[in-house]
Design brief:
2 copies of one chain form a homodimer. Chain A contains 7 helices and 5 strands, in the order H-E-E-H-H-E-H-E-H-E-H-H. Chain A is of the alpha/beta class. Chain A has a 5-stranded mixed sheet. In chain A, strand 3, helix 4 and strand 4 form a beta-alpha-beta unit. The first copy, chain A, is globular. In chain A, 48% of the residues are buried. At the A-B interface, helix 3 and helix 4 of A face helix 3 and helix 4 of B.
């Protein structure tokens, strides 16, 4: 499966989250051959769980693994520091990102530490987040830990 | 509650994890007044869940919150990159660490980004990890994403 094919799985997850009333960010973990290991999406709203971002959901769904050296994390949006830390700690060597226009997390930091980063500038991913941030800004800022109107 | 009192809660969690056959790392999230918001421990072995570290378990247990500006993360061990990323992303302003001798994660990076870091050099925390790493090195290296004997 190529990068666009892998991203399509993450986008399916993002759309599933949106349909549930949640934050439309999805991710999937693949092995180096493009075999799907796990997939998931942000579940802050659905489960009241601030710890489940798209990337952590996909990572968890892939189950307990001894090594991630042959894996690829694919996500609809630039990974936040939490999810970037996950990638670095577990040695995931490659991250494919739908877009980094509406939000820029830790992907440059990951690249500095040897992680291969591809940003696909996917219009569908940009559209999902642009529409969502416009519709639910308070929910988006909550998800990235930014207090608005409080400082 | 003072730092030692808060650490005692995290140590209880670490010991609970050890008693379950798991990795003895515990954490707890408090508010600035020392009120407990959530507590938890590493559950890699117990749940087959690589995503549940002590800090992420405590964070999840605290429930969905709009802000973490008044919180303190207390952990028995220096937070790995994954858990350090969690602290940075959600703006947790202070981390109290039992020890950073047996493992050093991202606490210096957090300090560079304005997070208040206290390392208590607690002998009980050091003992828990020293004994565990000696007894189950393969499990420990799996938990921090280090391949041993494979490179």
């Amino acid at each position: 499966m190529d990068e666009r094919g892998m991203l399509a799985v993450a986008v399916e997850e993002a759309r599933a989250g949106l349909a549930e009333g949640g934050i439309p960010i999805g991710a999937a973990l693949f092995d180096a051959n493009g075999t799907l290991l796990g997939r998931g999406h942000n579940r802050r709203v659905q489960d009241g769980d601030a710890s489940t971002h798209g990337e952590t959901a996909a990572f968890r769904a892939a189950g307990r693994r001894a090594s991630y050296r042959d894996t690829i994390m694919v996500t609809t949006l630039s990974p936040c520091w939490y999810c970037s830390g996950l990638v670095r700690q577990f040695g995931i060597p490659r991250v494919v990102i739908g877009e980094a226009t509406t939000f820029s997390g830790g992907h440059d930091w990951l690249a500095e530490h040897g992680v291969g980063i591809t940003i696909l500038d996917d219009p569908e991913c940009v559209g999902l987040m642009t529409d969502f941030i416009e519709a639910r800004p308070e929910l988006w800022f909550e998800d990235i830990g930014e207090d608005i109107g409080k400082d």
